[in-house]
Amino acid sequence: MNLLHRRGWLLIGTATLFAGGLLGVACGPNKPNFDGGVDGSGDSTTGNDSGQDGAKPDGGGGDGGGGSCEAGLGGSCDIVAQNCGTGKECGVVKLADGGYDLECITNSTGSIKEGYACTQSGNSNPCVAGLECIAARCSKHCCLGDDSVCGQSHPENNAGHCDLTVTVNGNDPAYSVCTYATSCTPFGIQPCSASQACLVKDSNGTSSCSDYASADGGLPEKATCQYANDCKDGMGCYGNLDGGSGFLCQWNCYVPPGPFDAGITSAGAGKGGCPTGESCKPINWSGTLPTWLGICGK
Predict the structure, then answer these.
(1) Per DSSP, what are the bridge partners of residue 196?
(2) What is the reported pTM?
(3) 52 or 82, which is more confident?
(4) Peptide bond into 57 cis (omega under 30)
């Protein structure tokens, strides 16, 4: 069973960047495929990588060289290495045939530095050269999962994480950027704002707040979903635990032992327990998510 859907991780939306290409920001990066280790027996296998889970994807994608790790766009430069000459930066350019490419373009005249708040306005980049205004922050390009290159948000001082993939016109992932989300603790222990979900990111239980993909808020249990931040706080977007195809919003739950009081297993849905008629199923996440994170099912 293709259990975990992680392509979306932080924000779904569009932003006009550099030369006016319509870019979609898909929270978290790739779609790792997990076979259903629902009984915790260890028979789960991992398909491709997930930056959201802290694993690095295979390199390649662009032909710009210099350690390129763009996920889908080619071109004459490397958007991560920013290997253009003086007065130039590597950015997305719309081609005459309607496609998109990475090319050296004139440096942005913006003045906002990494991690500071920004507002995208038309084709103008408000950030300093080499950065982009993504999810309302001037963000650095990075290789998915490599948090070491990311700075901090200002003035909050939230650590940056390379966990957000940018897509061009809704196509395959093009490249990744750092995000600077507020930290949280799942099961409502350290909650996010009303318009956000607390999403677990890695095997250490690192969690951060994510805006909902839809302006209408998170989707309810069993709703069809595409991205991790489609679902209401306390849920994830997973392959149907109770059988069937497709990806559905399903409640996360607590599987002791772990860092929290075992008593939360009797709490309500989204608080560590499960809805009436469902029980918490241990999941073998193949080391990508904590063993104390389970899914509610019948």
Answers:
(1) 211
(2) 0.64
(3) 82
(4) no
